[in-house]
Amino acid sequence: MDLRHILITGASSGIGAALARRYARPDVRLALGGRDLHRLDDVVATCRQRGATVIATAVDVTDQSATRAWILDADAESPIDLVVANAGISSHSGGDGESEVRAREVFAVNLEGVLNTAFPAIERMSTRGRGQIALMSSLAGYRGFPDAPAYSASKAAVKALAEAWRGELAARGIRVSAICPGFIETPMTASNKFPMPFLMTAERAAEIIAAGLDRDRARISFPWPMALGSWLVAALPVLGDRVLRPRARKPA
Ligand code: NAD
């Protein structure tokens, strides 16, 4: 599909910013969203240097009406070909247990934020019978991870949503993909204290995601050894419980 207008949420850093840079070229219009306009400055400048037309907007994806207005306005300017619902936050209980407040924040951004982004796009794309939507899940969405309960549950929901929508929306000409990365080097993982096997740069992740979306892949899971491991711990729950059980903490 010829991508002329691409909208990305959470585009100020990490994978969202890398995707914006990856897609930036003279005949492309980028609608980039982030909570803080100032934090989008760097990626906007780089994308403009590459010749793209860039419209940066301060939008919090948990704000349903603001997100809807942003997407409908962007689409009215020029029909959106691809929406990447990328914005997300993590939660690592670190053995202290995940607070209820944090769990609710994670669901608000990672799941409701995706709904707030996708529904207006589906509405507009349905009327013209074409479009593409990419939902940011994670390999952590393959099963529940004891170190990140709300995060893994929110990503599992997003993965299921993408799979279901892919079936439902094909008849309306809308392609839907679930993106399931392993560990990617971004601000989200920068403070992780645990080992992150097969850690990959955001630039490489953006290449893989763009190639997968170009081929209309249902699920873009990578890197493959981590995807295989995640599939195994999901398929074999007893093994998963053993491998993923947090180590008992020594008393202080
Ligand atoms: P990141 O923290 O650099 O990017 C997340 C972006 O989302 C940031 O720009 C942040 O400002 C934005 N954001 C957060 N809450 C928002 C809100 N309410 N409204 C609008 N924007 C908001 O981290 P990242 O690793 O690039 O994460 C991007 C996506 O990739 C997330 O959904 C994350 O869960 C997912 N992911 C990351 C990894 C990884 O290892 N880094 C792995 C799998 C999936």
Question: Can you describe this structure?
Answer:
The chain has 252 residues and is α/β, with parallel strands linked by helices. Helix content is 46%, strand content 17%. It has helices spanning 14-23, 41-49, 64-77, 100-128, 149-169, 202-214, 224-235, 237-244, and strands at residues 5-8, 29-34, 53-58, 82-85, 131-136, 174-181, 184-185, 200-201, 219-222. Strand 1, helix 1 and strand 2 form a beta-alpha-beta unit. The mean pLDDT is 95. Bound molecules: nicotinamide-adenine-dinucleotide. Nicotinamide-adenine-dinucleotide binds at residues 9-10, 12-16, 34-35, 60-62, 86-89, 109, 113, 136, 138, 181, 183-184, 186-189.
Which features characterize this protein?
252 residues, 8 helices, binds nicotinamide-adenine-dinucleotide
What's the short story on this structure?
This protein has helices spanning 14-23, 41-49, 64-77, 100-128, 149-169, 202-214, 224-235, 237-244, and strands at 5-8, 29-34, 53-58, 82-85, 131-136, 174-181, 184-185, 200-201, 219-222. With 252 residues, the chain is of the alpha/beta class.
